[in-house]
Design a protein that fits this description.
four-stranded antiparallel beta sheet, elongated, six-stranded antiparallel beta sheet, 12 strands, 295 residues
Length: 295
Amino acid sequence: MKQKIPKEIIATFSIVGFDPITGELGVAVQSKFIGVGSVVPWAKAGVGAVATQAFANPAYGPDGLRLMEEGKSAQETIDFLTSHDEGRRERQVGIVDAKGNSATFTGENCMDWAGGRAGKHYAAQGNILVSEETIIAMAETFEATQGTLAERLLKALDAGQNAGGDSRGRQSAAIYIVKEKGGYLGANDRYIDLRVDDHPDPIQELIRIYRLHQLYFGTTKEENILSIEGEIRKEIEHYLYRLNFLKSDQNNDDDIFYTQLTSFLHMENFEERELERGKIDKEVLDFMRNKEVVG
């Protein structure tokens, strides 16, 4: 007889990770549970990252970060948390500390399939999965992928879903990454904090939102700096006209053209990608090419 799954359990798979070059720490998670980003991921710059799930004990997040801040390693933190928790047999947690140490724990009463794998700078774990292949896929993908921590975590999460994922289905996903002064205007450490609370394909939606985040807040790459002249000038004029920023799609006065281009950039929150007069970021131009006209 198949074991009945209680409604309160968070059927989830997640991966915590650390980037030794940037110091970034983070968590990516998917679940058949609404708003999983409000429960599972915890992180503090210079300290560590925690994913608490299954019959999740939310206290594992702040308590785990406090223990690591006091000097305990990822494994020591898990040992302390679980030894002081009477419900540990139904808990699952993954931790990575700011030295790159990682650890994962799955209580013996977690619903099948449940388990985890800790490796260099990461820990992957999940419960109520189709099979162990989800964890294997996340771990191997994280190990093999190059790029930023966010890119590695998202690719690992996507690979886990493609390998089977949560046996109950999909609903929400989140990515949370911290870095010292990595937040907006350097005013906090919340570098990336994106959530998809309810969606039929939450991981792909999370990846889409992450790409938008990078478009708005990423920096211009040297190879993407284009000179506004010739065909590129004509193309931009056409798009600004189509978007009602110019009255004509050709031969506009320079001052009017650049004033209206600046208006477009600011309306779309592209201040971070605004370049000197006569230059444009290729990613901004690509955005203009794909922007739909309303009305």
